[in-house]
Structure formats: structure tokens, C-alpha cells
Specification:
The chain has 959 residues and is of the alpha+beta class. The chain contains 19 helices and 42 strands.
């Protein structure tokens, strides 16, 4: 069953007519050759000799083929005989009637016999909700699981030869979390050595709760914030306990380990460590605390006597394989395990799909007696790497030290046959058919358990090199590509980076006569999106472009930072499943704008901000990736450009969206007007410190009630000034979000109130911007890059990650189809190369730019562009051009395209939340879009081709 957890998740989907052959095919893919990821890296989880991989099938009675996703933690019993695997993720299932089945929509504890080879699954326990917390009692007679948003702790003991929860879960007593509309979230849990007390990290309450396990009740809650407006103790994730009287708590936001005396229930120390500390373990004698730092690619080693950091260990790679002299980050270490002799530390690197083998030196290792060996001066260092599945989250070691157990959280989703987890349709039968598919991208990403003998010597060396190849640590110098980029760097002085929302390739370009599109899945053909089609024809059709992120939560970080952090990967799945935490990935934490440093600044902008001076003080974003080197500074593409001394302008990216959701008669609601700058009505509120002074505050950003056309007009207002002065910024970010859709009927302004009109509005804005550049003095030294932040909202016959992308301007090939697999990271690397920017981290630093898109000719071919006015906009209040160059092929035929009115869409969308990306069920929208645009006579697509972007073009219907 490896294909569901490692390869193309659709191989066992109910709609697959022959799952057996797909399973065999994908087993061959995983076992015989690397599997490419949409991030540009590859995985080879079965590379280690003797390795086995097991999918996590909970054995649901009515869903025997269901495989769980998002395995996050492992825990080996004190006697080493029982292995626990915990999931914390999406894992939602709907029944044939389209209704969520509670018994099939839980999280899971998988219980394995760890002595068996491979481990034998003995039992599965369902838990309503979880969030990473999993631990055994010291005697091994019980284990504990944190309940995440349920704000509780579950305790399981042996009963009649099986594990069961004998008492109700222990409630921790929080009615809410800290912040704006935040719920509680119990996270990491540990048990004291005497076995009588447990300590739970309250992730959203910045505290720990001490629980009496015998009395089954709460003893005390200890706040971790220092108070007086000083940051500290926030977003506590994990707990380790020394003896029975001292707890260590990792604070992911504040780069510290908080020390709590359990006898006095007081915070006694705050130990500074590197970025985003997550998991922690103690050695046997409890003299050393090892802390994995997910944002700095390191392990901090703390002396528990002096409570000082004695060593920092890089986990990315052995220096002989990859010196990493520039200090690039992105390997995301997130769990640890010690060998029985405590001479080796194993660390999962989520970002590089590997386990780092770290040889501990004199300061961090242990002698035979278990005491710290301080005589030696040899530093600890990574000596090897072991390949794993996509995004490993936890590792455990057998008691004899001979075997490793590793779980991963993700897999390739494959062709998204239906791409639907809900619908806005008013037809009950359509609603049922949609929900019962269970084929949303986060449902199709699966987890698994990898077990393998501990490799040594030559085997470890070979595996280390394989990880290097998978992540491009091994030199891939491309002289031709370097020449092309150097050529462009001397000629291109401006880049405009347009970021859009959530469309797949087939949805928009499926009907294009060139490229690998499926016309039967085209939802926005040329009549609705004429500029998308014209630009693909005129320049390069990228029919094998993949968005690196699954959903907007990770997508906006991939599109602006070329990577995610571990805390994003830990929280995105549970947020999208409705299992707690807030949307913290675009500069707000707990719905608070942490791009503003003080409470006064925050309340001035957002009057609903809680008046708590200790709520997330300072401009620190828990989710932000760190810059290269030994620094805590955030690193996004604008930071890299500013550090290079380039001018940057931001239009709509990373803003506080909460104000847009206020009632329109609220005094703080920013009024939607076509001339905001003229009237002095502020439209945008940046959430990053670096963006505060380089953002156009009159460009509205993500608000589906607004029109992209007027966002373009605001961009044009500033551009005309730059054009007049000859001083265009080197890098511009432009957000055109209306292809996400929402705000139908009377809630939309300018009567842009149906998906058809909103897509046309988005299309026209792009066309107008390209035309503006083409007709300006900057036409010959400006490149325009256009991307979707993710592709979750539509069907695609190749893969759920495949999307539309464009490169427009001088030196770009014209009339060409490029089927080389490029992705989000490829595009960012290209922008960096063109502008002469230093890479932000491992993924972009080691990626290849999109050289096939360009032609290095001394004189660029002439290019120009005239925007096409999409016909659906004629039925809006947006201005029309004097002449209307329409491309209405087949558009006006009601039999082919039923033009549902605004009242239909408003009625169908009733009760949905379009205030923020993906608050509406993400792929859910597809069924109503299909039905509203194509009608009943065109069946919704169900079956698709395979993962090879070039393998199935001949079999598609003619276009």
C-alpha cells in the first residue's frame, strides 16, 4: 500500500476502475526511482537496504481502503515492544449521503508491535481531535494523547488485552484562547518520573496545565508570559520533564525554552535558543536537553544543571556533502531520538525529507555511566542522512539501537478526480454526489510508517549522497543556464510579480488548442478568460507547471519565501479540517496584526483587537521563515531585494483582512470606492514590518467584494508617476485575487457578482497591466511573472498541484510550449537570478531557474500586447473601452453556457465565508462552478489521466 502514502494518492480512489494495476504501478515508482515533488525535490524512501514502508490504514468498516494522512508523532514504550503513531491533520470523510461521518472523520493512534519486522499493526484507536501530543507513562502502563481544540487529555490503559480509554478525557478548563476569536489547543504532553503528574502545553493560551493522573484532575495552570509587554512563552508546543520537579517548554514564537519549577508552579528561567524550537528530549541521566529548532535547522544542547546552551548542531547535511557556507535554511528539523548508547542523535528534517545522523561529541554525548562526557572537545556533527517519505515528522529508535521508525506527513495527491469536498449547489443530489467523493487535495495527501535497519559505513554514505541528489546538494552546475541568467541580469531591471488565487491548468487552459490540457475539464474557457489564453499563445505555454503549496496557508509562503516553516506544516492541515488554530500564515497570529509592534498601533487600525498589552507583543511572526545565517530576521522575497539595496513596491500582499469583514456601516470598515487615493480612504494594512513603508495603502488586496479592475487602476495611478519620472521600482508584488471568487449578488460591488464575471475581471486586470507595460518606456527591461499561490480549487487530469503560470516580456520565447516541469520555487529562483538577489534558503538556493522560457538574443524580438475585454464584463458597472475586441467563441449560446444570474449565485453561496482565502471549503466551489457555468447536460469530470504531463495528450478529446 505504499502508493497512497508516497506516490499518487488517487491510485486507490473509489472512482479508479482498476486500483490494483495503479497500486502496482505506483509501488514501482516509489521503489525503483525517485518520486518528484512539486517543490523541486525528490524522495526515495525505500532506498535503505531492508527498509519497509506501511500505509496507515485504520480499518474503517465501511471504508476499508482509507489511508490516514498527516502522521506527526511516534512514541516507543519503555520496554521497546510497542510503537505508537499519532496523526494530527485533515482526515475527514463524508458518507454516500454527503454528510460527515464522525466515526470515520477522527484522528488516530496506531499501535504496532515494534519487535516484529516489519512492525505489525495490532490496534487502532480513534480520537476526535489531536495536536501532536503523545507520550507514555514511565512504567509503560498507560499513554497520553492531547485533544487539540477539545482542550483535554486522553489517557489509555490496557483493558482485557487491548488499549482503551477507561475514564473520560481530562478537561483543561479553557473557554477560549488568547487573541481575536481563538479557541484553546492542547499540544505537547509529558509525564513526570514519579508517574503521578502530567504537564500539557496550551498552544493558544501561552501556558501549561499540570494534571494529577491519579485524581484525574487539573492541579494548576502556569502562565508562561513574562508580562509588562515583553514577549515570551508564546505558542508553547512541547514539554519535557526532568525528574518530577522541573518542566521545559518550547516557545516557538519567542526562540526560548521556558523552565518551570513544578513544586512552586513558577517560571524560573528562559533559555534562549535558535529559531522556532519544537520537540525536545532528555538523555538518560537528564543532564542534557536536546531541542530541535525548526526554523534555524539546528539542535540546541542545553546543560540542565547550568541551564545554558553548550552546543548548537546543524542538521542539514555533513559538511563534506554540502558545506552550506551561506547559511541557507529550510531543512526544518522537527523531532529527535537518541541511540541507546547516547552517542548518536537522529533528527528528522521535514524540509529535506531525511533523517540526520548526528555523532555527538564530548560536550553533548554521554559516557558509559550515562554522565556527560566533558573530557573530549570533539564537536557534534551530522555524519549522514537517510532518505524518507515526504515531510518526516517523527523518529524513534529500537531499544537495541538496530532499527529506526520514521513517520511522514504528506504524499503526492495525484490527479484530483473531482477535486471536491463540498459544493454550493442548490441541488441536493449534486450536494450529495460532491461531498461523497472525498477527493480534496488535503484528503489525498497520506502518511506512512518507514522502518529500516540503522545504516552504517558504506550504506550510510550511499544514502547520504542519495539525499544530496534528492535535494540538489550535489553540484548540478548548468553553464548554459548561468549564461542565460547573466544575460538577462544585464538587461532586465524591473520585475513585476503577480500572484493570483487557486486555479488549476485544466480549469483555465484546458480548452487551449496547444499544450496538455483537457477541454472536458475547462471551466473558464477563452470567452471568459481571453487574456489568459492570449498570453499563453503569444509567449510560453507552461503546461507542466506545479504550485509547490497545496492550499493558501502554505501557498502564500511558497510564493513569497520559496519554502514553509515547520510550524506552518504542523498547523495547516488541522486548520483546514476545522480542528483548531487560526490562519497564521500571512502575517497575522491569532488574528492579530503582528506586523505592528505596539498595542496602540494595532488598536488604531483594528478596533476589535483585545486590549491586552501582553498579547503577542512586538513585531514577531511565529510562522515567518528566517533569513540565512545566524539571525532571527524574517526572510521573504521583498527582504532579499531590500537587503540588496533594490527598490520594492507592494500592492496587496500580506495584509490584515479582518477589517474587510466588518459590516459596511461600521466606522472602521474601509469603504470600497474606485478613487480611494483621491478621497484619502485607506484600503490596505500591511502585516509585515518590512512592508509598512513600501506598500500602496490605497490598493485594497484580498476582498472578493472589490474588483480587480479598480486594483489595476490604483496600480496604474502609481505606475504613471513612475513612468513620468523614469524611476520604476526594481521589484513589484501585485495581488489580483478575484479568481478566488465570492461575494455574489448584492454583496458584490460594481455588479461583478458571479464567478464568470469575477474570473473575467481578474483576466482583464492582468491584460491591462501587461498592456500598460508593453506600451511604456519600461517595455524592454521589464519581465512580468504571473502565478497562482496554489491550485486547490479545481480539477486537473495530471495532478492537483498543476496550475497556470506565465512569463511575459522581452527575451521570452514566443509561441512556444514548454513542458519541462517547473514549479513555484523555479519561478522565484528565476526572479532572484534576474535581479541579482541572494537566495533566501535551501529550496530556492539549490533550484534551477526557468531557462527554457527565455531566448538569449542580443536584440529582443519585438513584443506588444493589447488587453482583450471579456464579454461577461459587459453586464457589470465596470467601465468599457471605446472599442471592444471580444473573443466570444461560443459564449453567447445558452445551450452551451447557461448564464446564471447574480441571484442564483447569491442563493447558492448563502452561508459561506469568503472573507479570507480558503475559509469557504476550498475545492468545494468546483461543483457549483461547474453546474452554474455548464449546466446539467455536461457531466462533472470524474476520471483522469496520470502524473506524466506529456503522456496523455493524444488520448484527450480534440480541442
Amino acid at each position: 500500500m505504499v502508493c497512497l502514502s508516497l506516490g499518487w494518492a488517487a491510485c486507490n480512489a473509489p472512482s479508479n476502475p482498476n486500483p490494483g494495476s495503479s497500486l502496482q504501478q505506483n509501488e514501482q515508482q516509489v521503489g525503483a526511482s525517485p518520486v518528484s515533488l512539486p517543490t523541486g525535490a525528490s524522495i526515495t524512501p525505500m532506498a535503505a537496504p531492508g527498509a519497509t514502508f506501511q500505509s496507515l490504514n485504520p480499518g474503517l468498516p465501511n471504508r476499508p481502503d482509507f489511508i490516514a494522512g498527516q502522521a506527526v508523532a511516534t512514541a516507543l514504550s519503555p520496554d521497546g515492544r510497542t510503537l505508537l503513531v499519532l496523526t494530527s491533520g485533515y482526515n475527514r470523510n463524508n458518507g454516500p449521503d454527503g454528510v460527515v461521518i464522525p466515526s470515520e472523520s477522527n484522528e488516530y493512534v496506531f499501535i504496532f508491535d515494534a519487535v516484529a519486522d516489519p512492525p505489525a499493526q495490532r490496534q487502532v484507536i480513534q480520537v476526535p481531535n489531536t495536536f501532536d501530543g503523545l507520550t507514555w507513562t514511565p512504567t509503560g502502563d498507560a499513554f497520553l494523547v492531547s485533544g487539540g481544540p477539545d482542550d483535554n487529555i486522553h489517557i489509555y490503559r490496557q483493558q482485557n488485552g487491548a488499549w482503551a480509554e477507561s475514564l473520560p478525557a481530562i478537561a483543561l478548563g479553557h473557554s477560549q484562547g488568547l487573541g481575536l476569536q481563538v479557541g484553546p489547543q492542547s499540544a505537547g504532553v509529558a509525564v513526570a518520573a514519579n508517574g503521578t503528574r502530567a504537564v500539557v502545553a496550551n498552544f493558544e493560551n501561552d501556558s501549561i496545565t499540570v494534571v494529577d493522573l491519579n485524581a484525574h484532575s487539573v492541579v494548576s495552570e502556569v502562565g508562561l508570559r513574562p508580562g509588562k509587554g515583553v514577549a515570551g512563552g508564546e505558542f508553547p508546543l512541547w514539554v519535557a520533564i526532568r525528574g518530577s520537579d522541573k518542566a521545559y517548554v518550547s516557545s516557538t514564537r519567542d526562540r526560548q525554552v521556558v523552565v518551570v519549577d513544578l513544586s512552586t508552579m513558577q517560571v524560573t528561567n528562559r533559555i534562549a535558543v535558535r529559531g522556532q524550537p519544537n520537540r525536545m528530549i532528555l538523555n538518560r541521566s537528564q543532564t542534557r536537553l536536546f531541542v530541535s529548532n525548526g526554523n534555524s535547522d539546528s539542535v540546541s544542547v542545553i546543560d540542565t544543571t547550568t541551564e545554558g546552551v553548550v552546543e548548537e548542531i546543524s542538521t542539514t547535511a555533513p559538511r563534506g556533502l554540502f558545506p552550506n557556507d551561506r547559511g541557507w535554511k529550510g531543512s526544518n528539523p522537527n523531532s529527535l531520538a537518541l541511540s541507546p548508547d547516547e552517542g548518536t542523535l537522529y533528527v528528522t528534517n521535514g524540509g529535506t525529507n531525511s533523517v540526520a545522523v548526528v555523532r555527538l561529541g564530548g560536550v553533548s554525548g554521554a559516557s558509559d555511566s550515562g554522565q556527560a562526557d566533558t573530557d573530549g572537545d570533539r564537536p557534534s556533527q551530522a555524519v549522514g542522512l537517510i532518505p524518507t517519505g515526504w515531510y518526516p515528522n517523527s523518529v524513534s529508535v529500537s531499544p537495541n539501537g538496530n532499527r529506526l521508525f520514521v513517520v511522514n506527513g504528506k504524499s503526492l495527491p495525484g490527479p484530483d478526480a473531482g477535486a471536491c469536498r463540498d459544493t454550493l449547489s442548490t441541488d441536493p443530489n449534486d450536494l450529495i454526489a460532491c461531498r461523497s467523493r472525498n477527493l480534496y487535495v488535503l484528503q489525498n495527501e497520506k502518511a506512512g510508517l518507514l522502518s529500516l535497519p540503522v545504516p552504517t559505513g558504506r550504506e550510510l554514505a550511499q544514502l547520504t549522497r542519495q539525499v544530496g541528489v534528492n535535494n540538489h546538494f550535489v553540484d548540478r552546475r548548468d553553464p548554459y543556464g548561468e549564461q542565460v541568467m547573466a544575460f538577462l541580469r544585464n538587461r532586465i531591471h524591473h520585475v513585476i510579480y503577480i500572484i493570483k488565487e487557486n486555479r488549476t491548468y485544466d480549469q483555465v487552459l484546458g480548452d487551449l488548442e496547444i499544450g496538455n490540457g483537457d477541454p472536458t475539464q475547462s471551466l473558464f474557457p477563452e470567452a471568459i478568460a481571453p487574456n489568459h489564453h492570449a498570453l499563453a499563445r503569444q509567449f510560453v505555454t507552461l503546461d507542466a507547471f506545479f504550485d509547490s503549496g497545496e492550499v493558501s496557508g502554505v501557498g502564500w509562503n511558497w510564493t513569497t519565501a520559496a519554502r514553509t516553516t515547520d510550524i506552518i506544516e504542523k498547523t495547516q492541515f488541522i486548520n483546514y479540517a476545522g480542528r483548531g488554530v487560526t490562519y497564521d500564515w500571512e502575517g497575522t497570529n491569532r488574528n492579530i496584526n503582528v506586523g505592528l509592534e505596539t498595542l496602540a498601533e494595532r488598536m488604531k487600525v483594528q478596533p476589535l483587537t483585545p486590549p491586552d498589552p501582553d498579547l503577542l507583543p512586538g513585531a514577531i511572526d511565529d510562522a515567518a521563515p528566517e533569513a540565512p545565517g545566524d539571525t532571527a530576521e524574517a526572510e521573504y522575497l521583498w527582504d532579499a531585494a531590500l537587503r540588496r539595496g533594490l527598490s520594492v513596491r507592494n500592492y496587496g500582499c500580506f495584509g490584515d483582512l479582518a477589517l474587510y469583514t466588518l459590516p459596511e456601516d461600521h466606522p472602521a470598515w474601509p469603504q470600497i470606492v474606485p478613487n480611494a487615493h483621491e478621497l484619502g480612504i485607506r484600503q490596505f494594512f500591511p502585516t509585515k514590518p518590512a512592508l509598512q513603508n513600501i506598500t500602496d495603502l490605497y490598493f485594497r488586496g484580498y476582498d472578493q467584494k472589490n474588483a480587480d479592475y479598480y486594483n489595476f487602476k490604483e496600480w496604474e495611478r502609481e505606475f504613471d508617476e513612475f513612468d513620468a519620472s523614469g524611476d520604476l521600482p526594481a521589484l513589484e508584488f501585485v495581488r489580483f485575487p478575484h479568481d478566488h471568487f465570492g461575494a455574489f449578488g448584492t454583496s458584490a460591488h460594481y455588479r461583478v457578482n458571479t464567478p464568470m464575471k469575477q474570473m473575467a475581471d481578474n483576466d482583464y486586470a492582468i491584460g491591462l497591466l501587461v498592456e500598460k507595460i508593453a506600451q511604456s518606456r519600461f517595455a524592454q527591461d521589464t519581465l512580468i511573472f504571473i502565478i497562482e499561490d496554489d491550485a486547490q480549487d479545481g480539477p486537473d487530469h495530471v495532478d492537483a498541484h498543476r496550475s497556470i503560470a506565465y512569463v511575459v516580456g522581452p527575451y521570452v520565447r514566443q509561441g512556444t510550449v514548454v513542458s519541462r516541469p517547473y514549479n513555484t520555487v523555479s519561478m522565484i529562483r528565476t526572479i532572484e537570478e534576474v535581479l541579482g538577489l541572494e537566495p533566501m534558503g535551501l529550496t530556492d538556493g539549490l533550484a534551477e531557474p526557468m531557462t527554457d522560457v527565455f531566448e538569449a538574443t542580443p536584440t529582443p524580438r519585438p513584443w506588444g500586447y493589447t488587453a482583450i475585454y471579456p464579454e461577461p464584463l459587459m453586464d457589470t458597472d465596470l467601465p468599457r473601452p471605446a472599442t471592444l475586441p471580444l473573443t466570444a467563441q461560443g459564449f453567447g449560446n445558452p445551450a452551451a453556457w447557461p448564464l446564471q444570474d447574480a441571484a442564483y449565485w447569491e442563493r447558492a453561496a448563502a452561508g459561506q465565508d469568503f472573507s479570507q482565502e480558503d475559509k469557504v471549503d476550498s475545492a468545494a466551489f468546483n461543483r457549483i462552478l461547474w453546474r452554474g457555468l455548464k449546466g446539467d447536460h455536461v457531466p462533472y469530470p470524474a476520471d483522469r489521466g496520470g502524473p506524466d504531463p506529456s503522456s496523455n495528450q493524444d488520448s484527450l478529446p480534440s480541442k
